[in-house]
Amino acid sequence: MNEHNLPFRMREYQKLMDQEILNSGDDYDKLANYPTYVIFFCNFDYYRRGLARYQFEFRDKWHPEIAAGDLRTLVIFNTKAKDHQHAAEIRPFFDMIRGTVDTKDKFIAAVDAEVQEIRADKKREARFMKEQIESRR
Description:
Distance between the termini: 13 Å
Strand order of the largest sheet: 1-3-2
Shape: globular
Number of strands: 3
Order of helices and strands: HEEEHHH
Radius of gyration: 18 Å
């Protein structure tokens, strides 16, 4: 992943999600039924603060207690974080992303099993890789 354009990738993904929700002529109020989350798991710390989780919502610059109310949330997880204060519950998932699988954790074991199943099915893996390449265009 390009480490230099993360905010713009999030913006693009948000746009793509909204396009999937709204059809031509739809009222914008339809978006109120679809709170959206753009979530990235990164093996780098884009904001260089050492935090495991950065979460953004659209707020007023001078009065941050006033939210725009557009129901969108952007979340970036830094798998190499030193401070897991806001992401302690998913630290085993971070470890898995970095290559250490805790088979005692049922969720991690299930995710790892699914990953292994995808890797074993060459057609499914090829389809996944094709989707990854197309998403980068």
